[in-house]
Design the sequence.
């Protein structure tokens, strides 16, 4: 009897912790209310913008910037000129007050992450951010936990793709096998060395 | 025995009911289970920061200073103008190679194509979605852009013009010249004459 209770409740507690105390639960699915309901689906899939049109520093810096309001006004000074949803953007472009976007993806401060290293070595945005091009509201699609990083760092080859396909999130390659061997080839040609040293990410 | 089992089921149901499942969309900020050093008092770009008066971590450079590695020299390469004056340079002041051209095509595709279109005729996707005033890079009637100097196109990219925004902050000078070179190539493709084609091939395009 006592054993059964222990099994049921102890097992339940262990199962609960195993299930819930994981970044797959604590982060994945996070989708804050943004000050402007900016839909990536419209801008990327419908208008056909490249990620780098807005996230212009992603190839050059560790940090992938959120665009300034003037970037939006390149188009929205003609498109949806009077739309109330874009009032904050217009004000910001006028007087320079920042738009209070809420950050979705955020590694702990003791982790060093770098966008340009990955983007210039054939790792696509879709690998770490999910299918942004289909999202009306950005949500946290991948766990970005230490295992997530290391799973790739141990064997990056199969995940690499041609450099001109990084921002083409729907790209699949001719077929999975071709893509895999192509990736292995890139890993060899570019002398890719995805470090597993603690000091690479914890510096 | 049965009651214990029922209590257990209720407990599980309550926990799952409150906590939901993995991957559910949620407005709740991520939970940091062991938050010891997760958030440190260091600067994160584009974040809020009470240290500065305007409350942001990314500060504009103070007046009279420039960022390290920025291109400040008043040379034709950086400004598109003949040094010492305001006249635009006539020709691209960097060597035009096939790499520069390829780079120009890539950057044109990212930053210009959505509005100006793949062929530069001003009929990109945005023209079908509400954008009515987009420059035609061939400007069939006035030929203004075809006869403009390279430096002037460079200046338009850098600072914008009329309704077009400035792209100087996203394209560094070298990339701007690359785009100028590619725009020139697009224009030439429309200006070609039959005589430019080897005599033997002329019949094939008639």
Sequence:
């Amino acid at each position: 009897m006592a054993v059964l209770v222990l099994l049921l409740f102890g097992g339940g507690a262990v199962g609960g912790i195993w299930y819930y105390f994981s970044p797959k639960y604590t982060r994945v699915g996070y989708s804050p209310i943004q000050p402007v309901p900016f839909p990536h689906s419209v801008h990327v899939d419908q208008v056909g913008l490249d990620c780098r049109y807005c996230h212009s520093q992603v190839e050059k810096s560790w940090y992938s910037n959120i665009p300034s309001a003037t970037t939006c006004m390149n188009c929205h000074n003609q498109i949806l000129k009077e739309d109330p949803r874009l009032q904050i953007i217009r004000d910001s472009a006028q007087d320079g007050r920042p738009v209070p976007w809420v950050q979705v993806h955020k590694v702990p401060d003791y982790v060093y992450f770098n966008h340009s290293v990955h983007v210039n070595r054939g790792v696509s945005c879709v690998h770490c951010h999910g299918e942004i091009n289909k999202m009306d509201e950005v949500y946290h699609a991948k766990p970005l936990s230490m295992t997530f990083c290391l799973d790739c760092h141990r064997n990056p080859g199969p995940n690499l793709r041609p450099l001109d396909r990084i921002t083409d999130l729907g790209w699949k390659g001719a077929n999975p096998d071709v893509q895999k061997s192509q990736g292995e080839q890139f890993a060899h040609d570019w002398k890719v060395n995805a470090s597993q040293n603690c000091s690479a990410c914890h510096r | 025995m049965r009651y214990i089992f029922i209590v257990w089921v209720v407990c599980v149901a309550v926990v799952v009911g409150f906590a939901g499942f993995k991957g559910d969309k949620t407005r709740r900020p991520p939970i940091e289970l062991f938050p010891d050093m997760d958030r440190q008092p260091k600067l994160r770009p584009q974040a809020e920061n009470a240290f500065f008066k305007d409350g942001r971590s990314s500060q504009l450079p103070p007046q009279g200073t420039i960022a390290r590695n920025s291109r400040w020299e008043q040379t034709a390469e950086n400004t598109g103008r003949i040094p010492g004056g305001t006249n635009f340079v006539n020709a691209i002041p960097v060597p035009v190679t096939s790499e520069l051209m390829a780079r120009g095509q890539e950057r044109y595709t990212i930053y210009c194509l959505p509005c100006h279109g793949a062929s530069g005729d001003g009929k990109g996707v945005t023209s079908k979605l509400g954008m009515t005033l987009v420059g035609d890079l061939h400007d069939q009637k006035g030929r203004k852009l075809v006869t403009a100097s390279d430096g002037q196109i460079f200046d338009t990219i850098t600072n914008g013009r009329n309704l077009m925004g400035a792209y100087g902050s996203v394209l560094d000078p070298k990339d701007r010249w690359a785009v100028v070179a590619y725009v020139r190539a697009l224009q030439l493709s429309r200006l070609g004459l039959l005589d430019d084609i080897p005599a033997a091939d002329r019949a094939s395009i008639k």
